[in-house]
Design brief:
The structure holds 3 protein chains of 3 kinds. Chain A is of the alpha/beta class. Chain A has a single domain, classed as Pyruvate-ferredoxin Oxidoreductase, domain 3. Helices cover 41% and strands 20% of the residues of chain A. In chain A, helix 1 crosses helix 4, helix 3 packs across helix 4 and helix 4 packs parallel to helix 6. By secondary structure, chain B is of the alpha/beta class. Chain B has 2 domains: 252 residues, Rossmann fold; 31 residues, no CATH class. In chain B, 36% of the residues lie in helices and 15% in strands. Chain B has an 8-stranded mixed β-sheet with strand order 2-1-3-4-6-5-8-7, sandwiched between helices. In chain C, helix 4 links the parallel strand 4 and strand 5. In chain C, helix 3 packs parallel to helix 4 and helix 11 packs across helix 14. Chain C starts with 10 loop residues before the first strand and ends with a helix. Classes of the chains: A alpha/beta, B alpha/beta, C alpha/beta.
């Protein structure tokens, strides 16, 4: 795949931007690809709806913005509602299935749900929900190798929280593999 | 005899501190700026400072021309911006004495924001403000220092805006040395300059100076000499006076003296102290610490 | 002179354009930064404030942009490399002392992260509509040098280049980035210090009493005089002579202003930096700078597939305008197309240089987002008709 557009959406405080940052960093620094991260700025970045966009490509990214993403990561209902109609026909939707109720999508759209916030709470810190989601994203999309993403997590989260965050990542990743298997089995 | 005269001419007493190749200056006869420059030159000589290490920065206006006449590293900047320029110069060369020499309109009106913020930071520079109550270079317009009812070319019926009290503004903004003298008080002014320059921190000296060409003429106050006589008869020396009590009213008594002389860490002290606290030995003291000596 | 390893954050980083600007400044040896918060430039100041204490620099959040620009001039004359950054209305405020910097011939760097204007405009969205203000924003006649990075990597590199040009040509140099580049995060490779070439400040080798601040040297690049060394020099924003003394007449004005203009125009070949692709033999040439030079490329690729002989020029330096090259091309190509995020600014210069010798087209909009490559493609198709 030459170029993949990814949109991560949620609300302020969920670590949306960090999630996008790690995807971009993992792709460009640890997987030798090109990745351009842009984000919504302004009042919306400081509280309510918030989104990060990453374009991952084997070649140089020329157009920096995401127009119709092949991957939509939805961590809030509002975010999902805002962006659900502007996606590629074959978009992969990765979402927190405790928080987001999916609506009807086209036949080529694939959807993968995870109770990321609940898993994060079980790990003891709700704040790592974005990293749980990141792991899940890694497993179900297969876009960026696991090791690159893990390195991205390790070098991007606050010092002293690496262990917890990697645990959160692995939790999401393993769950992702399970879900994928199930989907394959049913297919 | 002839040789002696020639020698006398060569050795102008101010030659060490004035750009003789730029004299005569542009100031009007009886203007108070020249006297103030003399007081600064004498102060610098008496302080026995290394004159290589003194810089003067001016803005725009009659007093703004001072930088051009002083034989020091000298900077004639934009209107109102002498203080920020001086601030940058000071931070780059904390070992140098940086003196801002400018007028009331320049420093307090268009440059007012820089004045209060640089005082707030207690930046180790000296600010000398020649206050002639008027914008003189542009032809005598009203200033934020013009006393109530005084006439100017843009307050032809008498000024109705409250003027600033400069020592109060400086003191309340954070200056550690604040004094006011008139152009008549040459010796006291010279002493004030010496004290201000020696002071670590933001020091401020206001100099009430006659502008006979505009302020005196527009207000029918006579010539420069009459204004000097007025200062003589109406100045009240009151060291330590509360700056709140020393407003200047039109043709009323003028309280002069040294009003503030306190100790407080400077901008660079505070920067160094904070960074030292946070970074410990990893932090290298900027500007060499106490004496602000540059390494 | 090579960069100081202490200042260079060697390695591959994932940085936005603003953070990359800050790293460029630090690598270039910038030691004084005076700035005032304004969206979308603030991250530059934030990173500098975090990084400066341990690299021996002083960051000051000034009271406003007038003071920021004034303070970096003072610091530059004090002997350190200095920089400020701003956006939108802040750029307008800095124009006053930018002019002083030009007049005093002061090396320093001003980064403008352009947003949509006029007035408060679009604080969080991109524009390229300050280009003419960059060229003419301060009053009077003078020349400027303005660079336009297209990515975080180039932001890092061009800030260093801006410092080098400012030292060489003894003038403030502008880095005209924009909100898109400033807030876009990409890989930035910071090379080791020994691979970063820096231009040292050119101080006079003459003794005090023998040197003037604006000596009429052959190439007009007079050495600076250091403060605190007994030169006791004077510099002024007034029209002045070689000594820096104010001279108020037309003859001095001619000498002074010509000097400010000539030192750039006589060295354009050294300053102008264009990146050309497939221009030789092209029928159509697209010109663009900054982020726009990236988004035109899909359109150009599409046109090429259609069999159109098309090339492009990315202007790394926008000012001085590459007059010579555009005049050459005007004789050879069918059309020149300028694409920029404004309603026709640098286009006017291109059109002037073309002087009717080929077709000129403009693709622009008021800002807020980058171009849709499709709009550029449509214009290419129209031009080739």
């Amino acid at each position: 795949m030459a170029t993949t557009e990814i949109r991560i959406t949620g609300f302020g405080g969920q670590g949306i931007i960090l999630c996008g940052y790690i995807i971009g960093k993992a792709a460009s620094i640890y997987n030798n690809q090109n990745a351009t991260l842009t984000q919504s700025f302004g009042p919306e970045a400081r509280g309510s709806a918030c989104s990060a966009q990453v374009v991952v490509s084997d070649d140089r990214v020329l157009y920096p913005y995401v127009t119709s993403p092949q991957i939509l990561v939805a961590l809030s209902r509002d975010g999902y509602k805002t962006h659900k109609d502007n996606i590629a026909d074959d978009c992969i939707i990765v979402y927190d299935n405790d928080l987001v109720t999916l609506e009807k999508h086209g036949p080529k759209v694939k959807t993968y749900g995870i109770p990321a916030t609940r898993f994060a709470e079980e790990l003891g810190r709700k704040i790592v929900l974005n990293i749980v989601m990141l792991g899940f994203f890694g497993a179900v999309t297969g876009l960026i190798p696991k090791e690159a993403l893990r390195q991205g997590v390790e070098t991007s989260v606050p010092p002293g929280t690496q262990e917890l965050n990697l645990k959160a990542f692995d939790k999401g990743y393993e769950y992702g593999l399970q879900v994928k298997k199930k989907v394959k089995a049913t297919a | 005899m002839i040789t002696e005269v020639a020698q006398q001419k060569q050795e102008h007493p101010m030659e060490k501190l004035l750009r003789m190749d730029r004299i005569p200056h542009i100031w009007c006869p009886t203007c108070g700026i020249g006297t103030t420059v003399t007081a600064l030159a004498v102060a610098l000589e008496q302080l026995e400072l290394d004159l290589d290490n003194v810089a003067v920065v001016s803005g725009i206006g009659c007093t703004g021309r001072v930088a051009g006449y002083m034989k020091l590293d000298s900077f004639h900047t934009t209107h109102g911006r002498a203080i920020p320029f001086a601030f940058g110069l000071h931070v780059a060369r904390p070992d140098m004495k940086v003196i801002v020499f400018s007028g009331d309109g320049d420093l307090i009106s268009i440059g007012g924001n820089h004045f209060i913020h640089t005082a707030r930071r207690n930046v180790d520079i000296t600010v000398i403000c020649v206050n002639n109550f008027i914008y003189a270079m542009t032809g005598g317009q009203v200033a934020p220092t013009t006393p109530l009812t005084a006439k100017s070319s843009t307050s032809p019926y008498g000024n109705y805006e409250h003027p600033f009290n400069l020592p109060l503004l400086a003191a309340s903004s954070g200056a550690v040395y604040v004094a006011r003298w008139t152009a008549l008080h040459i010796r006291r002014l010279t002493t004030a300059f010496k004290e201000a320059i020696s002071k670590r921190g933001f020091s401020f000296v206001e100099v009430i100076a006659p502008c006979s060409t505009l302020y005196a003429r527009l207000n029918k106050l006579g010539d420069g000499l009459d204004l000097m006589k007025f200062y003589h008869d109406n100045s009240i020396i009151k060291h330590g006076a509360d700056p709140k009590d020393i407003d200047i009213e039109y043709q009323s008594k003028i309280t002069v003296g040294k009003f503030v002389d306190i100790e407080k860490p400077t901008f660079l002290d505070c920067l160094n102290n904070r960074n030292k606290e946070v970074f410990g030995d990893k932090y290298k003291i900027y500007g060499g610490g106490n004496g602000h000596n540059r390494d | 002179m090579k960069a100081d390893p202490k200042n260079v954050l060697v390695g591959s980083h994932y940085l936005d354009g603003n953070h990359a600007c800050a790293e460029g400044a630090i690598a270039a040896g910038c030691k004084f930064f005076g700035g005032y918060p304004i969206t979308p430039s603030t991250e530059i100041a934030e990173r500098v404030s975090r990084r400066f204490p341990l690299v021996g620099g002083v960051f000051v959040q000034m009271e406003d942009e007038l003071a920021s620009m004034g303070a970096i001039l003072g610091a530059a004359w004090g002997g350190v490399k200095s920089m400020t950054c701003t956006s939108g209305p802040g750029f307008s405020l800095m124009m006053e002392n930018f002019g002083l910097g030009i007049m005093l011939e002061t090396p320093c760097v001003l980064v403008n992260v352009q947003r949509g204007g006029p007035s408060t405009g679009l604080p969080t969205l991109p524009g390229q509509a300050d280009m003419m203000q960059a060229r003419w924003g301060s009053h009077g006649d003078y020349e400027v040098i303005a660079l336009a990075p297209d990515s975080p990597q180039e932001s890092f590199e061009l800030v260093i280049h801006a410092f080098n040009l400012s030292e060489k040509y003894r003038m403030p140099v502008l880095v005209m980035t924009d909100e898109c580049v400033g807030h876009m995060t990409e890989k930035v490779i910071i090379p080791p210090a020994e691979e970063i070439e820096l231009v040292e400040r050119n101080y006079t080798d003459k003794k005090p009493g023998e040197a003037w601040p604006y000596e009429d040297t052959k190439n007009l690049l007079s050495p600076l005089l250091p403060v605190g060394k007994g030169y006791k020099f004077h510099v002024t924003g007034l029209t002045h002579d070689q000594r820096g003394y104010p001279i108020i007449n037309d003859e001095a004005q001619e000498w002074n202003v010509r000097r400010l203009i000539d030192k750039v125009t006589k060295n354009v070949d050294d300053i102008v930096w264009l990146e050309e692709k497939d221009v030789e033999g092209a029928e159509i040439v697209v010109m663009a700078y900054g982020i726009t030079s990236r988004v035109v490329q899909p359109a150009i690729a599409k046109a090429k597939k259609d069999g159109i002989k098309i090339g492009m020029i990315k202007m790394v330096t926008v000012w001085p305008f590459p007059e010579k090259r555009v005049k050459e091309l005007a004789d050879k190509v069918k059309a020149l197309i300028m694409v920029e995020m404004n309603y026709g600014q640098v286009f006017l210069e291109m059109d002037r240089c073309v002087a009717g010798k080929c077709q000129t087209y403009f693709v622009g909009h008021a800002g807020g987002t980058v171009h849709n490559p499709e709009d550029v493609y449509k214009t290419i198709k129209e031009a080739v008709k």
